Structures are given as C-alpha cells and as structure tokens.
Please model this.
Amino acid sequence: MIQKRFENSAKAVADIHDGATLLVGGFGGSGLPSHLIAALVEQGAKNLTVVSNNIGAVSDGVAALISNNQVKKIICSFPVGPHADDLIARLQNGTIELEISPQGTLAERIRAGGAGVPAFYTPTAAHTELGEGKETRVFNGRLHVLENAIIGDYAFIKGYRADRWGNLVYNKTQRNFNPVMATAARITIAEVDEIVEVGELDPENIATQSVFVHRLVKLEAKREEGVLANG
Model:
C-alpha cells in the first residue's frame, strides 16, 4: 500500500524544476487546472516547455506563465486571439518559441506518448507549412507526415470527482485533453472539486485510473487539501 499524505497546490508543484516539460489540460477555460497554474506562477520555475491546446487569458491559463517569463517554448494548436499579444511580442523578440500542432495531431501525439508509441504518420499538415522539414511517406497514394510523440515531466489536469486512490471522473466537456495528458507524464497532478472514499465512484464512469495520478489536490472555497500518491 502506497503511503499517502495531504498536500495543497503549492506543495504539489514545489518540485517542478527549471527546464521541465509541462502538459496542461483544458479547452479554453473548460477543464483548465487553473489553481495548479497559479501555484506554479508563485513557485517560479523557468525555461518551461508547455504543451496545451491554447494559451488562455492573460491572467489565467498558460498565458499567466508566459507573462511571468517562465516559458521558453509553447506547443499548442490555438495560440491566436486578443489574449495573444504578449505571446506575439515575445515571438518577435525571440524570447519564446512556438510550435503549432493541429488539434487532432496534438491529441494523438500526447496519446502516443502515453501509449509508448514514439511516432506516427498522419496526412494532416501534409503539403502545408506545418509539414515542412518533417519526414514524409506515401500510404495508399496519399502523403503522410511523421509526427513525434509528446511526453511530459509533469501534467496538470482538472477532474470533477476523485477517490482517495486517485481514480478520476470528469464533468462532461471538462474531460477534453485531460485523460490523455494524465497518461503521458512522469508525474501527473490533478486538481478536483471533490474527493470521495474508494468504492464510491461508479467504475463505468472512471475515465482516468489511479495508476496515472500521482498527486491529488482538492479545491474548496476557503482552503485546499489533497492527497499525494506515487510521487
């Protein structure tokens, strides 16, 4: 039996080191682990490579890390919008690197990382600027681009309910990138709205199994508490 101990979000992110690769779940604000991101802003780790669908608002999401000079590279599918001015300025002065990956390709690169598949071919991005410089191969008369899997040192994910072992249930569209990111990181940290006892979750509704969740933080109106398991 793994020894578990209580933690808050600040302690859960305390060991994230400079230069780490961080996977951040969410689609816009839905399923965004905003408390963990805020804790990392306070913690201050720098030169991060961040993988996320989009960068979020200036005061929230990955944009908060960018504004705090903590990100050296962002891999995402949607960097545009009125919130992207800071990112654009940093791209222009060369202080941050941007890699755009089509949304389905990004999800599959993360899924492949969690499944132990090092790379895969896809027709998406063939004959476009996003495919330039990448290895290609023709299958059934159609050009495919080789895409590398993504693996993170850490993953921040947002769940709805968890049991004390770390099995997770998501709230509808808040699931999005969170389950695949949970499988593709060395240490996965989940923030959840509620923690219940083992056996209270319907096994048919568990989307992320406890083996993939290492740290668990419960969010409450006035305080945070959580369970740190498996690292």
